[in-house]
């Protein structure tokens, strides 16, 4: 990725068609970052709230995020996200369940809405082998595993084992689950085959390998390294798969590369890290050495803006899912990786050739 000191988003609305009842008939947004004529690195795909995505909505409601917020099968206070094969799994801390948003079949179902395995305060979510779903519950102080059909098959958390489980991530090759225990200021690592604790790392402090209320975590699929958001130390720390400290980046501040309230973390196929910050309402992108590459966002309701961004996830196809918590939606982007360019040559050509519409000055 090309380093850019200041990223200015380019948002272009190509078409709006409205009827007398103000229904949105057609809308196409092209958001490319960095904006043309720079080499495209990320582009906006869309936003999802739930059932409201699969029916006609009012233009104004769609833009400000108020269409059926929290009503029926629509998100109210989302926090964590994971995705696979066109299906998004989103935790909702207010509604106490997991939304399963199937973008192919255009339907919404739930996981964790009934016993056994009924959730109370689901926070983070991860996808294991065979499309199994794992979720941490901060109130019940447990981690649950569900099959794709929603049936419970796995649970961690004897009395006193967790103080506040939050971020979770899975190393599929090793079949391990990493659980951030925020109030214990450490990470606990379990064997998913035996549901047994393998080891834990971290303690409260400010030194390398120590934490101050860590929140979220991600595993780099390339090397098994683990990135932990050390929220109240205003940094991200990188460990190897066995919990040995490797590096850190970030500090308190309001300049690019700094943090105020870092939350979510995701890692793409080229080991770039995406960190959401709930104070800045943005997402910053770093290379694997901790160098700032791009950032985007800012407070707002429109696409590419956020209010209290939380969980971040990057799937196997380099789609980036960002939970926009207060706006009750998940925004989805595509990273233009080298692999993606080869697999989508026509779309890549269109991105490079895209020219924004400019206002005709003669009409003024």
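^ structure tokens above, recovered residues below v
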């Amino acid at each position: 990725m090309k380093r850019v000191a200041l990223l200015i988003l380019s948002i272009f609305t190509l078409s709006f068609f409205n009827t007398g009842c103000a229904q949105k008939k057609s809308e196409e947004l092209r958001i490319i970052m960095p904006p043309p004529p720079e080499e495209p690195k990320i582009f906006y795909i869309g936003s999802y709230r739930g059932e409201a995505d699969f029916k006609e909505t009012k233009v104004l409601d769609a833009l400000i995020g108020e269409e059926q917020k929290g009503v029926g099968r629509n998100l109210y206070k989302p926090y964590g996200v994971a995705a696979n094969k066109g299906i998004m799994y989103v935790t909702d801390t207010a509604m106490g369940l997991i939304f399963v948003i199937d973008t192919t079949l255009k339907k919404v179902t739930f996981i964790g809405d009934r016993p056994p395995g009924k959730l109370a305060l689901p926070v983070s979510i991860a996808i294991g082998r065979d499309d199994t779903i794992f979720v941490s519950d901060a109130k019940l102080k447990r981690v649950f595993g569900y099959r794709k059909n929603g049936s419970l098959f796995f649970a961690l958390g004897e009395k006193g084992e967790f103080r506040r489980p939050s971020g979770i991530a899975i190393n599929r090759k090793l079949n391990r689950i990493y659980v951030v225990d925020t109030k214990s200021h450490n990470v606990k690592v379990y064997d998913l085959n035996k549901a047994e604790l393998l080891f834990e790392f971290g303690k409260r402090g400010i030194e390398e390998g120590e934490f101050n209320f860590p929140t979220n975590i991600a595993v780099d699929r390339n090397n098994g390294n683990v990135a932990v958001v050390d929220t109240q130390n205003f940094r991200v720390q990188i460990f190897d798969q066995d919990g040995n400290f490797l590096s850190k980046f970030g500090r308190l501040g309001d300049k690019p590369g700094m943090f105020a309230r870092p939350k979510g973390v995701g890692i793409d196929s080229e080991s770039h890290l995406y960190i959401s910050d709930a104070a800045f309402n943005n997402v910053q992108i770093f290379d694997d050495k901790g160098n700032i590459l791009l950032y985007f966002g800012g407070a707002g309701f429109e696409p590419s803006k956020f209010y209290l961004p939380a969980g971040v996830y990057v799937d196997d196809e380099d789609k980036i899912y960002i939970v926009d918590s207060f706006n009750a939606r998940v925004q989805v982007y595509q990273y233009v990786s080298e692999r993606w360019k080869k697999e989508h040559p026509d779309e890549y050509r269109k991105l490079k050739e895209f020219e924004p519409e400019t206002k005709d000055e003669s009409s003024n």
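Helices lie at 59-64, 338-343, 345-353.
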